[in-house]
Design brief:
Pfam families: Penicil_amidase (PF01804). By secondary structure, the chain is of the alpha+beta class. It contains 23 helices and 32 strands. It is 31% helix and 22% strand.
């Protein structure tokens, strides 16, 4: 039976190879090959999906439409409910199916409630925004190849719906699981593109209404510059718990064989529409790429091919700016530009609502973008009779990310990766770190940002902007002046964004690393400087995760002789940098407390004597068996960051400072007392192993989870939900997701280890709902099956021929 199965697969490969022929390398490197006739647009789409261990599909197709078909089909098989939920969002139909007041999952925007989400996305649909972007010729718009992928994806998803019965209880029998169109797929890509811009401000866009005619400007309504600057700095902080990542590329001078190495560790949500999904995509002679895609998208976002590997980290570039409008005294819906009034564009949007009459609201748009009354609750921007604020998001015209990804998939070197970024300019909010089989490395902050130069900010900032721009990179420009337009770089694909020459880039360093701080210390020995403030800071304190990562990777590079195994060990080292800096001092200060007691924040005395020995004996790791990790974690969360260190940050020693725990500060003893009291109240022993109280429940069973939170600085980042009544940290919200350790040994196949921490399927009845999660718990990896011989030799091999059969 096994031999017969392999013969069938070999025959399918041969058939597909014959159908496509063999392209010369130059053609295979460019996915938008206009001279090649693609598969007909009407029906007849098909692919072969070969499943190996852990339900990983290897999708084999004749062309890009067929590849999209196989991808859409296989994604639906694993994630139909989550994918369908996202398409409800981008159609603006959440209120219709789930009610207007229910909370969103925040995966595709910051909207707090379904009604706000719908008003925004229905507005995008009503105005034909995505259709116009699809119609733009490449490179400003998506290539024909990218559109064929989208078309195929929609057809494959729909075919799965027609041919299969949904077993996931989340959406079994649900009316909101419906066929999709190419426009839906493109709209989901659009939502991801504007996630850091308009998507961040959905509530402020949909709630923006002019002041009632005849009212005067409210007293004190203007935002306070200092307070707004602090709020903006917090909102755009690099160490946000919501999204993050680590990645490091090692050059040939540091490795055992002179070839490159890449370790990718993105920190993304464990639930909802920003989950990754793993696959291999192959068009013989044209494309062969393996990695992870964001749900609802047809391309590999993070991955590797035979020659190059890459990962992304969320970047510090601020993907929006504000224009402060001077309003016409006679009309708050008109604004002045060079003394002449311009009327705002009024958009009326109607949303269907479950069990009620439709809701119609008005949005107001300007030459700069939508009027916005806030960036979240912490940063209000009131619309008064004299002033309003418009949001500029350059990614609102960016539907190019699929072409960037296709360029990565066909790249043969880090130079080709950089070439794809420069040609397509499609990544909205991430850095790229890459390594190749020739030993080259790359770090680049090639993201689409508003063209805010420091000179422009100096010349055109309003008083509010003069506070927010240095503090956060958020520019607030004077919208009444035509000379404050963003302008155009000669090498930019469109006006108003930076061209490739302005983007922070480091090539061929012994190592290139990023952990969500700015580009400055991608390599601590070769700092990047000279970029504009909107990209991030220079010479400022780094997060503990960045500091710990730089210590680790610099030591590895200095040691040399590195292999993929070293990358695997780094991922699961679970070292707690905060503990290396502070745990010993905390243990000593604990032992020195009079009477071994400390006063908690409630004024009660707490016996902390048991904590002293636990902290002293702890291994300073966040492995599932580490005793003392939970105690230190709960203590560290309570210690105010401003009161942690005696020795402050120094730009001359950015990795080593600040340091020396300030145990003399009253906050130290209070935090320790509160942590001890909290664990005792939850009946959790102070020396209990971390994994006993940091876990997820799958199939009714607890799976211990290694790793630690952002503030601890752990590479293997895990953000979990604290539920002491349930036993501790009982679910993971974000953290390590699709991990890959990739290298080369001179053979035809890359040496790759991968892991999808939350597993392939969100369907609780799937056998691939928790299998990789259990591997993650045991700090294990999956050996990548990239070459045909490896796929065909899989003991779990299962072949499915998928087609558009009606």
């Amino acid at each position: 039976m096994r031999t017969r199965l392999r013969r069938i697969v070999v025959a399918a490969v041969a058939l597909l190879t014959a159908a496509t022929g063999t392209l010369p390398a130059t053609a295979a490197d460019r996915p938008d090959d206009r001279s090649r006739k693609e598969h007909p647009s009407a029906g007849g789409l098909s692919a072969v999906v070969r499943y190996t261990e852990y339900g990983i599909p290897h999708i084999l197709a004749r062309d890009y439409a067929d590849l999209g078909f196989g991808t859409g089909w296989a994604q639906a098989a694993d994630q139909v409910c989550t994918v369908a939920d996202g398409f409800v969002t981008v159609r603006g139909e959440r209120s219709r199916f789930f009610g207007p007041d229910a909370a969103t999952d925040f995966s595709l925007s910051s909207a707090a409630r379904n009604l706000s989400s719908d008003l925004y996305f229905r507005g995008v649909r009503d105005t034909g925004t995505v259709e116009r972007l699809l119609a733009r010729p490449a490179p400003a718009g998506p290539s024909r190849t990218a559109k064929e992928l989208m078309r195929g994806y929609a057809a494959g998803y729909n075919a799965w719906l027609r041919q299969n019965r949904i077993t996931d209880p989340t959406c079994k029998g649900a009316a909101w699981v419906r066929p999709i169109t190419t426009l839906d797929v493109a709209a989901r890509g659009y939502a991801l593109a504007v996630l850091g811009g308009q998507g961040r401000a959905v509530d402020g866009i949909t709630a923006a209404q002019p002041p009632t005619t005849g009212t005067s400007t409210p007293s004190g309504a203007a935002p306070d510059p200092a307070r707004t600057a602090r709020a903006a700095a917090g909102l755009f902080a690099a160490d946000s718990a919501d999204m993050g990542s680590n990645a490091v590329a090692f050059g040939g001078s540091t490795t055992a064989n002179g070839r490159g190495l890449l370790l990718g560790n993105p920190h993304y949500p464990w639930q909802g529409g920003r989950r990754f999904w793993q696959s291999q995509q192959t068009i013989p002679g044209r494309l062969n790429v393996s990695g992870a895609s964001l749900l609802g998208t047809p391309t590999v976002s993070i991955g590797h091919n035979a020659h190059v590997a890459w990962s992304h980290t969320v970047a510090t570039g601020v993907t929006l700016n504000l224009h402060q409008l001077t309003l016409d005294p006679a009309d708050p819906t008109a604004y002045l530009v060079d003394g002449r009034p311009e009327r705002m564009t009024k958009r009326s949007v109607t949303v269907a609502v479950q069990g009620a009459t439709p809701v119609t609201r008005t949005q107001w748009w300007t030459r700069y973008g939508p009027v916005v009354t806030g960036l979240g609750s912490s940063l209000p921007l009131p619309w008064t009779t004299t002033t309003a604020y418009a949001l500029n998001d350059p990614n609102s015209t960016n539907l190019r990310a699929s072409d960037t990804a296709l360029g990565f998939g066909t790249a043969r070197s880090t130079a080709d990766v950089l070439g794809s970024l420069r040609r397509t300019q499609g990544l909205p909010w991430v850095n790229t770190i890459a390594a190749d089989s020739a030993g080259h490395t790359l770090f680049t902050q090639s993201q689409v940002l508003p063209r805010i130069t420091d000179e422009l900010a100096q010349r055109c900032s309003t008083p509010l902007g003069r506070a927010t721009y240095p503090a956060s990179g958020v520019a607030v420009l004077d919208g009444s002046r035509g000379d404050c337009a963003l302008g155009r770089d000669g090498d930019a694909v469109e006006p108003g964004i930076f061209g490739p020459a302005a983007l922070p880039t480091l090539r061929d360093a012994p190592y290139a690393e990023n952990s969500n701080d700015s580009a400055w210390l991608a390599n601590a020995d070769q700092p990047l400087t000279g970029y504009q403030r909107v990209f991030g800071t220079i010479g400022t304190a780094r997060s503990l995760r960045t500091r710990g990562a730089l210590e680790d990777v610099a030591a590895l590079a200095g040691r040399g002789g590195l292999t993929v195994r070293d990358l695997q060990q780094q991922q699961y080292a679970n070292r707690v940098p905060a503990a290396d800096l502070a745990a010993s001092d905390a243990a000593k200060a604990c032992a020195a407390l009079p009477g071994s007691t400390a006063t908690g924040s409630d004024g009660q005395a707490v016996d902390v004597s048991g904590a002293c020995g636990v902290l002293a004996a702890w291994d300073h790791k966040a492995g599932t068996g580490s005793r003392g990790a939970l105690l230190f974690d709960r203590f560290w969360r309570r210690l105010p960051a401003a009161r942690q260190w005696k020795v402050p940050f120094s730009a001359a020693d950015p990795v080593g400072t600040p340091h020396t725990l300030d145990t003399d500060a009253p906050a130290f003893a209070t935090a320790l007392a509160d942590a001890v009291a909290e664990l005792r109240a939850a009946d959790i022993p102070l020396d209990s192993p971390l994994g006993k109280h940091q876990f997820v429940v799958r199939g009714g069973k607890r799976i211990p989870v290694p790793g630690g939170t952002e503030s601890l600085g752990v590479w293997n980042k895990i953000e979990a939900v604290w539920n002491p009544a349930g036993g501790g940290y009982t679910e993971v919200t974000t953290g390590s997701s699709y991990m890959q350790a990739v290298g080369w040994d001179g053979g035809r196949c890359p040496v790759a280890r991968t892991l999808l921490t939350y597993s392939q399927s969100s369907n609780p009845v799937s056998r691939h709902h928790d299998d990789q999660t259990r591997l993650f718990s045991g700090e294990k990896w999956v050996t990548s099956r990239f070459c045909e011989k490896d796929i065909l030799s899989s003991p779990a091999l299962r072949v499915v021929r998928v087609g558009d059969h009606r």
